[in-house]
Amino acid sequence: MSDVQDYPELDTLQTAYKAALEQWISAIRTEEALVCVNHTLAEVDRWEQAHFDEEDARERAKEAKQDYENALREKFFDF
After folding, report:
1. Residue 2 placed within a domain
2. In the chain, N or C terminus with fewer CB closer than 10 Å?
3. Contacts of 60 (CB under 8 A, 6+ apart)
4. Is the pTM of this model over 0.85?
């Protein structure tokens, strides 16, 4: 018998959390890139949209983290 246990549900949630974090990081980098240029009105609009996109990505990452944490608690601590 192997010491390694398989937790496919946890693996799926962990993968989703990692993906959400990567999307959030990408959104932050997009916003950062836009703040480093001379802004025209159109660029300011793109920068503002990048901020909203970053906020959305952050919320998705927080939700994925919560889902993963809840599953860990349920699996290992029964609550």
Report:
1. no
2. N
3. 20, 23, 24
4. no
Number of domains in the chain: 1
- What does the alpha-carbon distance between residue 44 and residue 41 come to, in Å, rounded to a whole number? 5
pLDDT digits 0-9 by tens, 19-66: 999 999 999 999 999 888 877 877 888 989 999 999 999 999 999 999
- Return the percent helix, strand and coil in the chain, to nearest 5: 80, 0, 20
Distances (CA, A) of 49 to 22, 33, 43: 19, 13, 10
Provide the 3-class DSSP secondary structure of residue 59.
Answer: helix
| Full residue range of the structural domain in which residue 44 is found | 31-79
Answer yes or no: is 19 within a domain: no
| Sign (positive or negative) of CA dihedral 75, 9, 22, 43 | negative
- Residue 10: inside a domain, yes or no? no
